[in-house]
Amino acid sequence: MVLLGTIILNLRRTMENIYLVLVFTLTLFSVDGKNFCERFSNNGKDGVLNFTNPDMADIEFGTQQQFKEMHCCAKGFSHMMWYKNNQPYPWKLTDPDETYMEGDYGNQTLTFQHLLTRDTDYYTCVASNGTHTISHTKQLLVKPMQFTEKPIQTATPHCHDVKRLPGGNVTFYCEFYFGYGGGEDDMLFWYKINKTDGEITYFWMEELNNKTYRTEFIYRDKNETKGTYLYISNITSVEYATYMVKAVNLHGDVEVPIKLTYGDPNAATEWQYIWRYPGLLIALGVIILLIPVIIVGYCKFKLDLKLLWKYKFARSKDTGDRQCKYDLFISHSGSDKDFSYVRHVLMKYLEDKCGFKLCVEERDFLGGKAIADNVVESIEDSQSWVIVLTPDYLDGHWSPFQFQVALERSLKFHSHLIIIIARELPKPVNSKHWKTLKHVIGVTRTLKWKEDNPSSRVQFWKKLLLQLPKSPKGKPNISRDMQQCSLPRSSSEQDLINRLNSTSGESGYGDSPTDGTTANPLARGRYESVRSEVSTFSEDDITVSVESNKIKSGAC
Predict the structure, then answer these.
(1) Can you tell me the distance from the alpha carbon of 92 to that of 84, in angstroms, rounded to the nearest whole number?
(2) Taking the model in full, what pTM does it have?
């Protein structure tokens, strides 16, 4: 039984191959160069310059030392010329009898008697009727006589997926180069894979010319190039399937799938729809051009836009039940350089221009109270805290305490702890007291003050204002106001402050008495009077002024 089944299976395969050969042989349409274009003479529009062969390949193959023809079928032309790589015929030919245009048929055919390797190039046919011109370019590839490859598909325009509505018609044409010396072993045929059950249907001889399907085969260049047509008429749901064209030679086979699906072939694609509406296309172009402008503008004015949003639309931060006496607490080392920065930069801008109420040690700490209590109470009474970080701050006696208290309150009340690097810091910061500070600097955005860079100072104020609460005076004019907020250019006022501090002997944090009370000469109620006397007294009177203020305030 097994042997009988094997015999029947082999017999069936043999019959299928015989049928395929019969189909190919009986339906082969032989076309030579002289009448190739005649079969398309009824195509196209009469009296109009156009190509008549709808299946002209973009790539053609030929065999070395063998015959080859290239066709450019057209109608409505008065003159046709061939070009090789933009060079008109005869393009430096050594023997024009080997390569020539068929003049009897309007030069529609370019003939090569014996192809050479140097004939591999791009060829263009140009047809003209005196007023209009059309052209088509092909690439010619020359293969060796000993062709040992499977068939190669040429680039034809009707060998791809298509959409059709029921009742419509469709034509497929696929073409292959089989090589020199092919014959009975070459096969080219169609079959269909049903969409529903995947069943394969071969187009046998009785199906070649029925009401739905028709096939046609042609060959060119002495059987080296073979093509096949599949015509489908009166399409129904049954015809929506995948059609396969298979080319076979001694060295292998090639299958090309083509899908016939439901759809309107004349329906406009998305881009075609856009071209129908030029206004929409213009709007799309404007949007594309505006995108990089918007990106560049946002990158350049990002801080300004954020400030505008903050002062125009954003809500002020709710401090809850906290009644803050100060907007900002300024923590600095108390050195002459740091106090000069606080007085001439931060206080002058944030207080005078923006209306913030600052807590500064030299002015707002209460005399007669322990420094630790002053620090804790002032930080508690402030909404945000600013650390003026400098080398002097790292060496300050009370700096670690102020930093730790401010950090603890910022975490407790979810408020901003702002770090300003007013001067370059040593690298690395090795003090054992500043491990937390180094971590905070690493995870937060610190602000750097650059005195000699005006543009950098503008960016500094914008970034600082973004982290601070809203200014009581509204959004400030940074570009105008910041010009007045810089360290003094002359040293006269700084010299007076230095002499004042040296005379008092107790202006820094580290010089407080052992009983815990402050002896700072610039405490609340004394700061303004000292500053006014500095501006009116001569240098010889500074000591007298300071001593009189000490006596008035009751300092020891």
Answers:
(1) 10
(2) 0.47
